[in-house]
Amino acid sequence: MAGNPRVGVLALQGDVREHIALLSRLGADAVRVRRPDELRAVDGLVIPGGESSVIDKLSRSFGLQGPIRAAIAAGMPMLGTCAGLIMLADTVVDAIDGQESFGGLDVVVRRNAFGRQAESFEAELEVAGFGGDPVSAAFIRGPVVESVGPAATPLAALDDGRVVAVEQGTLLGLSFHPEISGETRFHQRFLDAVEQWRHHLAA
Ligand code: GLN
């Protein structure tokens, strides 16, 4: 299909710039999404790391919660990192009062699961389907996937077995931040799904 894939990064709060930079490096036309009409103009959405309770509140006040849920239901590819994984989870444990997610991933995630002592750490991960070197993953007050329902597939786990990457159809959720460690394979996988989605829409 002609032209670069046009993808959005939800730009309400969080590490938006890092995702835009990485997606641009991979040849995508990456734009910030803050309004429903900006969402309609893209073929995939990245939900960045940041603070999920803030992203939730702002997405509701900017009128984006409904359109993002509809896009997920329609099959639009999305990649959520850290707070973005929380936003894509069907169930969130240790959320603040009244906190909502977009949902889509059949998982239970626990916010801030790694506690204070280990607010930040790096780990090497083997990821299902990735050849080459293990992923060097940066965890920054990230969530953990406490349970994976039948519709979702775990992609990576820590040595102790805790799941930190999941996939379900065109949705990809990560507890960590590939956009910070310079890991490109998850964003490439997302862009491949976007390319397929564009073909599907054009068919
Ligand atoms: N603790 C944050 C939250 O609950 C996530 C941290 C991050 O995205 N780096 O949303």
From TrEMBL:
The active site is at residues 82, 177, 179. GO terms for molecular function: glutaminase activity; pyridoxal 5'-phosphate synthase (glutamine hydrolysing) activity. Belongs to the glutaminase PdxT/SNO family. In the presence of PdxS, forms a dodecamer of heterodimers. Only shows activity in the heterodimer. Pathway: Cofactor biosynthesis; pyridoxal 5'-phosphate biosynthesis. Catalyzes the hydrolysis of glutamine to glutamate and ammonia as part of the biosynthesis of pyridoxal 5'-phosphate. The resulting ammonia molecule is channeled to the active site of PdxS. The keyword NAD does not apply. PROSITE patterns: GATASE_TYPE_1, PDXT_SNO_1, PDXT_SNO_2. Transmembrane segments: none annotated. This is Pyridoxal 5'-phosphate synthase subunit PdxT. It catalyses: aldehydo-D-ribose 5-phosphate + D-glyceraldehyde 3-phosphate + L-glutamine = pyridoxal 5'-phosphate + L-glutamate + phosphate + 3 H2O + H(+); L-glutamine + H2O = L-glutamate + NH4(+). InterPro entries: Class_I_gatase-like (IPR029062), PdxT/SNO (IPR002161), PdxT/SNO_CS (IPR021196). Pfam families: SNO. It comes from Microbacterium paraoxydans. Keywords: Glutamine amidotransferase, Hydrolase, Lyase, Pyridoxal phosphate. Its EC number is 4.3.3.6, 3.5.1.2. L-glutamine binds at residues 50-52, 111, 140-141.
